[in-house]
Amino acid sequence: MTPDRHTPIDPPRRPGGGSMALLPGLLVCLGVTTVAMLAQAVEERAFAHPYVEALVIAILLGIALRSVWHPGARFSRGIAFSAKQVLELAVTLLGASLSLGALVASGPALLAGIVGTVVLTIGASYAICRLLALPARMAILVACGNAICGNSAIAAVAPVIGADGEEVAASIAFTAVLGVLMVLGLPLFVPLADLTQNQYGVLAGLTVYAVPQVLAATVPVGLVSTQVGTLVKLIRVLMLGPVVVAFSLIARHLPREGAAAPRPATFSPTRLVPGFILGFLALASLRSLGLIPDAAVGPLKQLAGLLTIVSMAALGLGVDIRVLARVGGRVTAAVTGSLIVLIATSLFLIKALGIA
């Protein structure tokens, strides 16, 4: 997060301490992460797919813990480190799991349709959020979450635009709830819109937030829907890189509600595009060129996922529950409106491309 935005818990400004000063806060975040991952494992055992991911559980557990316990100076540095640097490292490692091969294989028409859907949804969602008086940075988080990949997109975009913990928590919490409702309700479009398995797979891939949720939404409909939905979803996830880079370029020009005027910025390559985004792009390029072996992709992706959960626990530990209560209705309305736009755009694309 940028220096002129407040982090969830401000670290004490004292000299020295080194890495050992981070340990207490890191251990708290790891403890919350462990509980969240165990909860997801229970879900997977019971339902085969997690309806509420560990990432969401971690941020909710962090908020709950923060409501009954205020971390003191001993814990604040490690929690702040987890909320910023750990998240940035997770985003960097995520690049190793993205390859441009799926883009080439999908065909130009579908690829253009997916890109157009993502861009249109981001623009429409941002407009809806601003009409509902949500802050600019929260509007971007909700828009990117809806348009690309839900919680992962919110987590990736947040440090680029300087969103604080409360904005991230509110965006993830309410997006996650509607994401689960999407999984449960989307199959109704098969009879309502008279969709084939192929068409429904495209619809699910364009609208459902996470890959596991795409599986949960398509497996009951059929194998073809599952295969098509997964492919479309993976291509949609590839949009995360260009979107993050784009927002890193415009972050300095975003409105600053309730904040002091921005300080003049001196030119720097890492200020124009943050270092962790350059790392993300570098790993994605290496993966596309085949320089990162397949055997390494799985572990790197798992590590990125683990670090993201740790950072979400840290963000939750810095959230004032009263803030969520104040913006909850508006965020829910914004996410719902954005989903309606996304579904309508996706159905139009299916018909326009003549997908059978």
Automatic annotation (TrEMBL):
Matches recorded under InterPro entries: UPF0324_pro
Q: Provide a GO CC annotation, any one.
A: plasma membrane
Topological category with respect to the lipid bilayer: Multi-pass membrane protein
Transmembrane portions of the chain? 21-42, 48-65, 86-104, 110-133, 140-162, 168-190, 202-225, 231-251, 272-292, 304-324, 331-350
Domain of life according to the entry:
Bacteria
Query: What keywords are annotated for this sequence in UniProt?
Result: Cell membrane, Membrane, Transmembrane, Transmembrane helix
Q: Name one Pfam family in it.
A: Cons_hypoth698
Cellular location(s): Cell membrane
* Record keyword Signal present: no
Q: Which family does it belong to?
A: Belongs to the UPF0324 family.
Instruction: Report what the protein is called.
Output: Conserved hypothetical integral membrane protein
Origin species? Methylobacterium gossipiicola
